Amino acid sequence: MKLSWTPYDLQLNHTFTISGFSRKTTPVVLTKIEYDGLEGYGEASLPPYLGETQASVIEFLKKIDLSGFSDPTQLEEILEYVDGIAINNTAAKAAVDIALHDLAGKIIGAPWYKMYGLDKLDVPDTTFTIGIDPDDEVIREKTREALGRFNILKVKVGGADDKRMIEAIRSVTDLPLAVDANQGWKDRRHALEMIQWLKEKGIVMVEQPMPKYDLDNIAWLTEESPLPIFADESVQRLHDVERLKGVFSGINIKLMKCTGMREAYKMRTLARALGMKVMIGCMTETSCAISAASQLSSGLDFADLDGALLIGNDCFDGAKLENGKIIASDLPGIGVKLTQKINFGR
Amino acid sequence: MKLSWTPYDLQLNHTFTISGFSRKTTPVVLTKIEYDGLEGYGEASLPPYLGETQASVIEFLKKIDLSGFSDPTQLEEILEYVDGIAINNTAAKAAVDIALHDLAGKIIGAPWYKMYGLDKLDVPDTTFTIGIDPDDEVIREKTREALGRFNILKVKVGGADDKRMIEAIRSVTDLPLAVDANQGWKDRRHALEMIQWLKEKGIVMVEQPMPKYDLDNIAWLTEESPLPIFADESVQRLHDVERLKGVFSGINIKLMKCTGMREAYKMRTLARALGMKVMIGCMTETSCAISAASQLSSGLDFADLDGALLIGNDCFDGAKLENGKIIASDLPGIGVKLTQKINFGR
Predict the structure, then answer these.
(1) Interface residues from chain B to A (CB-CB < 8 Å)
(2) Residue contact A299–B262, C-beta within 8 A
(3) Optimal mutation site among B69, B71, B73, B263, interface A, most CBs of chain A within 10 A
(4) What's the number of CA atoms in the CB half-sphere (13 Å) around residue A132?
């Protein structure tokens, strides 16, 4: 197995604003693992607020020595080794996990959704995020652009503009809406009042309403809330899931947080076994990481896989938007093809 | 997909005695699912103390209508339907689950251990059970027969003969021993004294020391015990696992109890995520069900997969005993071939 990589900068179609930060690009690192004439592709997406950089990912990738492994399908053993190289570095680990899944799937000759026993068409509608804007007419215009392509929209809330945003969208459409508060509400009674108001406005779920460590207040809120409450910042990896039972209604699994597909599938299994809901989310990513996520989105409660639709220089063809759902391709592995020449120079 | 079946009676090499019952045969039902020129095989093993019979299995199989499903690889959906047909009937459900896994693996063209990302050689030594006998010389002779073939033996305890059995085996070998008390100890202090004595005699694990619902006393025993304590009768399906955390050190997963490979893999994932140990066990079964179990035995703490070695009329070739371990074949699906003509007459 030969691992190589290259940094790549995603060009965002619209300036992305969250919690006071704005940016026009998202840095990623693309990975490739070659074996016996086959190539598996992976990706680490590195939005700045998560603490990994192209340099830190490449630093991590340089430490990996796959020469001790002869069979790329032995994912459990190889990925346990990779996980043990350093703590954190979850996006870097995901870049290896995804490339290895792509390679193993190509060796076996099947897409992962099939090996997971799933129906690739039985996936939730993906949410599409309507970005915050001070001008209501801009919000209405963004919303109109999404109509017909998406069956559920997502709005970032948790600030002073919440009601105005929702009202502006509601003046254009009554599609179901998901909201992500990104830890924005600090008081549980205020959060509950907001959620009750949102429920009346046709909102169907709430992500991370309060600060990630404020679990006692979130547990109270989940108990009182008429809408399901999902953990995002409060959940990262498999070991986080159990203690969130009874705190949140469900968890948002993201490959870049949890080290990739293998751990994501375990988290999905664990959460469901504990009676929790499950959604799958993403960063701004190419169709490489989005296609990987699409392999395990079947049967989940919500999907937020619009990441590759937000960029202008996607270099992979893979999972596609069909009738409001992100559907995996029929190709083996994660189901992608490179659409341009990429130099994986290491 | 066409499902067919036939009853089959396993001839035991030795009379099998457990908790006062003796028998020379184990009834099973063999299943076959045909699709597009491929055949998947399954098995329900029906030791009398578990409550299912060949008649009840066939009754259940007759209720199954697979005509609504076009793709046998969509295991999640198909097996959810099968599970919903009736409560219990876990061995009957396993017979469908195993045949469907065999078929899906043949369609995909890979053995399941590969799709699980596992190394088929990285499995625990299988235990081999030395049957209870009033004559110490018979025990010594049975033990001698097992030497060289097995690296760990298993003894049924929980009765008045415990120490005599162990001493008889120890007079022949110092191989590691596992013990299964089959709920036999009723007093926790007596159980702890026995376990402390067993620890000194080189026993490495204890299965189901006390009655299955006596969880408070078992939790105390696990806390005090110098040996890991595994749930067998106390655990059946996925929903049982969570409440056993902190009660037992680990769980014994058996396909016939848990409805088959799909739920077994979820139980394995859940138990490990909860920090519990995992072993995989069996009934007396042909190499069909044993091969299915062998697909997911990699990386577990213990394996008790001697079921097909105890019968004289195994009609499948599949997973094999190699250096004390039951190792899956390289064939796709569960990795078996029929070794004789079986008429699946429905």
Answers:
(1) 71, 73-77, 79, 104, 108-110, 114-119, 122, 238-239, 241-242, 262, 266, 269-270, 273-274, 298-299
(2) no
(3) B73
(4) 19
CB atoms within 10 A of CB B196: 13
Residues carrying CATH 3.20.20.120, chain B: 114-338
For residues A3-40, b (16+ Cβ closer than 10 Å) or e, as one string? bbbbbbebebeeebebeeeeeeebbbbbbbbbbeebbb
pLDDT > 90: percent of chain B: 93
Spatial distance between the Cα atoms of A11 and A28, rounded to a whole number of angstroms: 11
Among A108, A274, A299, the residue with its CB nearest the CB of B76 is A299
Task: Specify the CATH number for A2-109; select among 3.40.980.10, 3.30.390.10, 3.90.226.10, 3.10.450.350.
Answer: 3.30.390.10
Which CATH number, 3.30.470.20, 3.30.300.30, 3.30.530.20, 3.20.20.120, labels domain A114-338? Answer: 3.20.20.120
Considering only residues B162 and A124, tell me which one the structure prediction assigns the higher pLDDT: A124
Among B142, B14, B225, B324, smallest CA distance to B208 is for B225
List of residues 6+ apart from B59 with CB closer than 8 A: none
For residue range A151-184, what is the model confidence (pLDDT) as tens digits? 999 999 988 889 999 999 999 999 999 999 999 9
Parts of chain A belonging to CATH 3.30.390.10: 2-109
Query: pTM of this prediction?
Result: 0.94
| Dihedral sign for Cα atoms in the order B57, B58, B62, B65 | positive
Q: What is the pLDDT of residues B82-111, one digit of tens each?
A: 999 999 999 999 999 999 999 999 999 999
* Summary mean pLDDT of chain B: 96
The per-type count for chain A, helices as H runs and strands as E runs, is 12, 15
Q: Which residues of A touch B (CB under 8 A)?
A: 71, 73-77, 79, 104, 108-110, 114-119, 122, 238-239, 241-242, 262, 266, 269-270, 273-274, 298-299
Which two structure tokens, joined as six digits, stand for A3?
A: 């691992």
Q: Is the pLDDT of residue B286 over 90?
A: yes
Name chain A contacts of B332, Cβ cutoff 8 Å.
none
Q: Show the tokens assigned to A132.
A: 């915050």
Beta bridge partners of B230: B207, B250
pLDDT over 70 (residue B148): yes
CB < 8 Å to B119, chain A: 71, 74, 76-77
Q: Summarize the confidence of residues A69-85 as an average pLDDT.
A: 97
Q: How far does the CA of residue B96 sit from the closest CA of chain A (Å)?
A: 15
ipTM of predicted assembly, 2 dp: 0.90
B31 forms beta bridges with B5, B42
Tally the C-alpha atoms within 13 A of residue A214's C-alpha that lie toward its C-beta: 17
Interface contact A104-B122, CB threshold 8 A: no
Give the lowest-confidence range in A151-160, A199-208, B192-201, B328-337: A151-160
Asked whether residue B9 carries a pLDDT value surpassing 80, the answer given is yes
Beta strands A337-338 and A316-317 are: antiparallel
Q: Is the confidence at residue A283, as pLDDT, over 90?
A: yes
Nearest CA to A59 among A33, A81, A91?
Answer: A91
List, edge to edge, every strand of the sheet that includes B229-231: B127-130, B152-156, B177-180, B203-207, B229-231, B250-254, B277-281, B302-303
